[in-house]
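To whoever picks this up:

The nightly regression suite flagged EGF-like domain-containing protein as changed. Nothing in the input moved, so I suspect the structure step. Input below, exactly as stored in the fixture:
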Amino acid sequence: MLTLKYRVSWIFPILFSFLPVYRLPIQLTVPLFPVSSEIKCPLECKKGHGRCALFLNSGTYFCQCDPGWFGPFCTNSYQCNCSPGSLCVGTSRNQSICVCPINKYGKRCYLTNNLCQEKNAKNCRNNGTCIPRDLRIPVDDKTTCSCPDKFHGDECELNETRIDLLIEMPAMKDSLLIHFIRVNSHMPALQLYQANNGGLMNV
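Regenerated output under the current build:
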């Protein structure tokens, strides 16, 4: 089962609000760990029902409200009308903002997506999770697989490569050099070596 974990927030202005569609081509890099902002935050979010968070691209702060609360300082309550099992993350123009589970969609997550139950759906292996793709995107495969740790591939059928080295102590000299080259079809080769001091460096 997939779970949602907060990492970071960005804020981007809509420059031409009079246009029916405003395209925003931006590449976002999600950090591995949540960005801490409680120490330097000038806002008093804790007086309400929320916590202070940082817009990573602007350096400004905002109050990230708990479910059921909204407003600049999370002091206003609201009744969420998302479907059971979905995540209610706020409100906009008196409507709940809902994050749907994998098999649901729609503004309030009441519509069911059965693509993963069809015969041509991905057969995700090794406890992988089938995820339906957005039907608005023209692709051949209507489903994809989210793989657990140590597995990858279109259907999570491939294991992570593991190399076990056994070196007898009498054969070791003053230093030991182990050289690896990792090759990815979409990236240039990455060469790594591990010296006898245990350090890992790029070369």
